[in-house]
Amino acid sequence: MKIAIGSDHGGFELKQELIEHYKGSDIELVDEGTYSLERCDYPDYARKVVDKVLKGEADKGILICGTGIGMTLIANRFKGIRAALLYSEFAAQAAKEHNNANIIVFGGRTMSKEDVIRYISIFNSVKYLDGTYEIRNKKLDV
């Protein structure tokens, strides 16, 4: 599975930890930046990940900023993107089963690496319940 991953400076350290954690696994993280702790603007990196997902160059995306809120806001401005801020095990499950999220978002300053890895695992292990939620989710692309 190919996942585009991007962050701003607030999510840089968590992004690097995730890239290291998934090295050599069946999950390929494609780093879309930022590449340092230098202050930068999160919309620039969100757009790079969104573009990869929309073009089909990545199966899904991961975005990380300080809290995850900003990245969620910008990603959901694009038609075809369903970005979900995962903050619990239930949110990780529901984001896939109910909303068919294609980008998952985390807070680099508010979440631990261990929690994030657990949420990614849960998200990747469940299936979208399309028959139940498809009508609702089609209403998102306005």
Describe, in short, the structure shown:
It contains 6 helices and 5 strands; from the N terminus they run βαβαβαβαβαα.
Keywords:
globular, 5 strands, 44% helix, alpha/beta, 142 residues, 6 helices, Ribose 5-phosphate Isomerase B, Chain: A
Explain what the structure shows:
By secondary structure, this protein is of the alpha/beta class. Helix content is 44%, strand content 17%. It has a single domain (2-138), classed as Ribose 5-phosphate Isomerase B, Chain: A. The chain contains 6 helices and 5 strands, in the order E-H-E-H-E-H-E-H-E-H-H. Helix 2 (42-54) crosses helix 3 (69-75) and helix 4 (89-97) runs parallel beside helix 5. The protein is globular.
Topology:
Blueprint: E1 2-7, H1 12-22, E2 28-31, H2 42-54, E3 60-65, H3 69-75, E4 83-85, H4 89-97, E5 103-107, H5 113-125, H6 130-138
Parallel strand pairs: 1-2, 1-3, 3-5, 4-5
Proportion of helical residues: 40-55%
Low-confidence stretches: none
Count of individual beta strands: 5
What is the beta-strand fraction? 15-25%
Q: What's the rounded overall pLDDT mean? A: 96
Examine the secondary-structure arrangement and name the CATH architecture.
Answer: 3-Layer(aba) Sandwich
Number of domains: 1
